[in-house]
Design goal:
The complex is a heterodimer of chains A (about 300) and B (about 230). Chain A is about 75% helix and about 0% strand. By secondary structure, chain A is mainly α. Chain B folds into two domains: about 160 residues, 3-Layer(aba) Sandwich (Rossmann fold), CATH 3.40.50.300; about 70 residues, no CATH class. The chains are: A mainly alpha (about 300), B alpha/beta (about 230).
């Protein structure tokens, strides 16, 4: 038994597993980024974030498959649509609830989740739709194959993290986004229109959902309930990283993805999720504020 | 330069200011003194748009302040150093200064203004990459004043700049304000350190329970028996 375990540990396939975990982590990191950005700035958790991603996936699917639009263009339109959805979510719902109790804000975004889901079901039906794009695999060696889709997802996720980081640390708007999460009230004294900044942040958060949608559409079928399969995990990555802490969320994404793939390597994939969620629950006992939460 | 006429303001049902009228002329330093809860901070907040006025007029160089969107007021040349400094604690000193320069019309002069602030407060240059939350109280006050100066304001509103600071530091802060005055800036300051603030301003108003009770030159008020009894424990 033990010999089997060590053999598995030093197997070439374990290396492949670790790399796949890393690649999955990139997508999880991208997923958590938008949610964290919105929470960090506006202090409201968008429970419906994964459903915005779902709508982004539909946009890409219909434009590419039915509309015949080149994939890259369809993805860009998907980003545009989700950015608009993010903007509308704040403009029509959250903006009116900024002073409301947090539970009411949660219920409102939870309501949006079912609204988006129901709307998608009515409009598009419940069938699973596949983009039908396969990018093939990269043969690293005779034994290790890495899916191009995953590599691409990781590269784009990493690129977005770098761009977002530069934007937040170098531009005036980025500085304002960091500042408003630290002291909302005095932003007026800096000449910042907080309403506009909230709308902009919501649109950026929505746009990030669109990017995630483009990457997920390459790997998964689109259906009205797809949000439920990665919504909870996105939320957990954010909580584990310390809600609103983008660096923490980024690191937590990799902890989670490695747990999932390693668990899946030694048992079935489902066990990977069990392992990851068990770790999450245990972590919440030890550090309820999140593993990477800053001390305040 | 700055004119208030019959300004009323408050929070919800609580009225904090009653018919406040005051003037600050260009180049002047004016203090508003008064006990805790007199409405001094409310007065500053209403001028810079942090809370709305319920009645009255505020004009800056002939333009109505109350009619402007709150976030445009700093663009009219009014910079506010808020009570308790209110820096962005998890941002560097330099990023805090940058926020003072946020409005698009200020950005072109960012480097120039930053150099000005660093020259005025060399300590800020040393600390420029440090998180503002880790600065000492006096340094935080420098940073807060520096942030307000980034927009090259015409008038600086200062809300209790000496609050919460050790006595030695309080004197340093008042020295800082004198240096800012020497740069030709107009200053409206709210303070509880009555004796010290009256030494650095030209005129002062006394605010009590939301109403202006007295006004006079700093010298007159320093001599006034009433003021001495009420604020200086003599």
């Amino acid at each position: 038994m033990f010999a089997e375990f060590t053999e598995a540990l030093f197997s070439i396939f374990f290396v492949e597993t670790l790399i796949n975990g890393l690649l999955l982590g990139g997508v999880l990191a991208l997923l958590s980024l938008g949610l964290n950005l919105i929470f960090g700035v506006i202090d409201v958790v968008w429970i419906c974030y994964a459903e915005i991603i779902m709508l982004g996936m539909y946009t890409i699917y219909f434009l590419h498959v039915d509309g015949g639009m080149p994939l890259i263009l369809a993805a860009a339109c998907g980003v545009g649509v989700t950015a608009l959805l993010g903007w509308l979510t704040h403009r029509l719902v959250i903006g009116y609830l900024l002073q409301a109790a947090p539970i009411n804000q949660l219920l409102a975004t939870g309501g949006l989740l079912f609204f988006f889901q129901g709307a998608a079901m009515v409009a598009f039906g419940i069938e699973f739709r596949n983009l039908g794009v396969s990018l093939g695999s990269l043969a690293v060696s005779e034994d290790i194959y890495l899916s191009w889709t995953r590599l691409l997802s990781f590269a784009i996720a990493a690129g977005v993290v770098v761009v977002l980081y530069q934007f937040l640390s170098r531009s005036y708007l980025g500085a304002a986004i960091r500042a408003i999460s630290q002291d909302r009230e005095i932003m007026i004294l800096m000449g910042v229109n907080t309403k506009k900044l909230y709308l902009l942040t919501s649109a950026i958060g929505g746009g990030l959902a669109g990017l995630a949608a483009a990457l997920l559409a390459l790997q998964y079928d689109v259906h009205p309930f797809i949000g439920l399969s990665f919504g909870p995990i996105t939320f957990m990555v954010c909580v584990m990283g310390g809600l609103g802490n983008m660096v923490g969320g980024f690191l937590a994404a990799f902890v989670f993805s490695e747990l999932i793939t390693i668990g899946g390597y030694f048992a079935e994939l489902e066990w990977g999720y069990v392992l990851a969620f068990a770790f999450f629950i245990a972590a919440m006992f030890v550090r309820p504020e999140g593993l990477f939460a800053r001390k305040s | 330069m700055l004119t208030l006429r019959n300004v009323n303001a408050g929070y919800g049902d609580f009225q904090a200011l009653f018919d406040v009228s005051l003037d600050v002329n260009a180049g002047e330093a004016v203090a508003v003194i008064g006990p805790n809860g007199a409405g001094k901070s409310t007065l500053m907040r209403v001028i810079s748009g942090m809370i709305p006025a319920t009645a009255g007029h505020i004009e800056m160089e002939g333009r109505s302040v109350l009619d402007a969107p709150a976030h445009d007021i700093v663009g009219m040349g009014i910079a506010h150093v808020p009570e308790n400094r209110r820096l962005f604690p998890r941002m560097t000193v330099e990023d805090n200064l940058r926020m003072g320069c946020f409005m698009p019309q200020f950005r072109a002069r960012y480097e120039e203004r930053k150099d000005f602030v660093y020259e005025l407060f060399p300590r800020m240059l040393e600390r420029r990459n440090q998180m503002a939350g880790t600065l000492s109280g006096g340094e935080q006050q420098m940073c807060a004043i520096g942030r307000a100066l980034m927009s090259d304001p015409k008038i600086l509103l200062m809300d209790e700049p000496s609050a919460g600071l050790a006595p030695v530091i309080v004197q340093q802060v008042f020295d800082l304000i004198e240096r800012i005055r020497a740069e030709g800036l107009t200053v409206l300051i709210v303070e509880q350190n009555v004796k010290q603030v009256l030494r650095i301003v030209d005129r002062a108003y006394v605010l009590e329970s939301g109403t202006l009770r007295l006004e006079g030159t700093a010298d007159e008020l320093l001599q006034s028996a009433e003021i001495q009894k009420a604020f200086m424990g003599m």
